[in-house]
Amino acid sequence: MDRKLTEQDISIEIADEAGCRKVVSVEIAPGRYHSEREKVLKGLMKEVELPGFRRGKAPADIVRRRFTDTIKSEALKSILPLAYGHIVESQKLEPLGDPVFTDVDDQDEAPLTFKINLEVRPRFEVDGYIGVKIKKEKIQVKKEEVEDVLKSLQERQVEYDAVDRPAVTDDLVTLDYAPLGDDGAPDTEKGVKDYPGQLGAGQLFPAFESAITGQQTGHTGQVDIDYPPEYGQKEVAGKKVQYQFTIKEIKEKRLPPLDDEFAKKVSEDIETLNDLKKDIENRMKEEKTKEARRKMEEQAIDTLLEKNPFEVPLSMKEHYKKQLGEEESRRRKSMGAPPEEDGEKEAQMEELFEKIALRNIKRYFLMDYIAGQEKVEVTGEEIDTELKKLVEESGRPTEEIKKYFKKGSEQLESLKNRLRERKIFEIILGAAESG
């Protein structure tokens, strides 16, 4: 018997539902379903042993009556997948996940009817990805931005010198401190020695900073700290704790002068301060160019998604939202924050996750569509070229890089996806118009 169904064997009606879901109502012709049952019956007749008959010699009518449920069950196991395969092929569907069969009705001498619930890839057309209008940014590095980077580099070379004067903002102070017990004496077992903290840098509680500022080395004082309810250490969260502290050392912050010697310390390839400024400017321009490019790419995506709306599979959206929720939970836990219990904030996060999931899933399908239309592929030669760049940029041995991006690895697939996406954006942005 032909293992495929013909158009005469099956009739279908497809109802579209939200979230790229379809419900297919199926009817199998009585003759075709009867043939499937007869096939199962013949197989059973060869195997079963019934009282009074040798193996394989029992009459068909007796086997049919004795094993009615088994025959129907096995026939369904055979014909349901055949029907599903026929529907997918004839309707050119791209299923996501497994189908769900419901409402099976297999009455004798009547058509076999059932429903198939399935989720499919969205079907859509993308209009306007060639010549999409994009607002292009002017790349400019301001003098103040270069100065800010210089200050940051200067901070990295900061030195601290011990001083004999009252502590002021920016000083680095070293403290011994301990909480006071019920008897008013310091609990040395819970105390901390040689704790460093810079005044004005947010490293100490404001109350501590106020108590220390203006005091000299050797000063001993007391301070009350009101811990917020959400503080990471549960034993003090939401409580007021009184501490005794002693200033052991005060160091003054000393920044190196911005001159040619400073520039040479920043990089052995730089000779003068002007060279350093130019290097900073060039690097910032390069970063701004990359950021501007990224913004143009996402601007193009948003424009195309707005012009070409389509639904996304519900299961993909829910899975993505679940991942976002788990990431948020891990983030809160790493910060020592408890799970979110504010109903309004939970609803806001749910709305945000919904928006992010929809946008990113649509972005994936949009890029995949354009790649298919433009026949975008990543060649082995392009991968090798990219790996050579990574070797040059990282300074790591070639074999180490190749081992990391070995065949079949997630890292290699991620690299392929980045190269593929780069080529797609070259097509989109290469023909883009300034808007």
Please name the defining characteristics of this protein.
3 domains; four-stranded antiparallel sheet; alpha+beta; Trigger factor, domain 2; Chitinase A, domain 3; 435 residues; five-stranded antiparallel sheet
Query: What is the C-alpha radius of gyration, as a whole number of Å?
Result: 36 Å
Major sheet size, sense and barrel closure: 5 strands, antiparallel
How many strand elements?
11
CATH class of the largest domain: Mainly Alpha
CATH topology descriptor of the largest domain: Trigger factor, domain 2
CATH superfamily of the largest domain: Trigger factor, C-terminal domain
Question: Low-confidence parts lasting 5 or more residues at pLDDT below 50?
Answer: none
What's the order of the H and E elements? EEHHHEEEHEEEHEEHHHHHHHE
CATH architecture of the largest domain: Orthogonal Bundle
Average pLDDT reading: 92
**In what range is the share of β-strand residues?**
15-25%
Structural class: alpha+beta
* Gross geometry: elongated
Protein described:
The chain has 435 residues and is an alpha+beta fold. The protein folds into 3 domains: 10-120, 2-Layer Sandwich (Alpha-Beta Plaits), CATH 3.30.70; 159-254, Chitinase A, domain 3 (Roll), CATH 3.10.50.40; 270-434, Trigger factor, domain 2 (Orthogonal Bundle). The protein is built from 12 helices and 11 strands. The strands form 3 sheets. Strands 6, 7, 8, 9 and 10 form a 5-stranded antiparallel sheet that branches. A 4-stranded antiparallel sheet has the order 1-2-4-3. Strands 5-11 form a two-stranded parallel sheet. α8 crosses α9. The chain is elongated and about 110 Å long. 13% of the residues are buried.
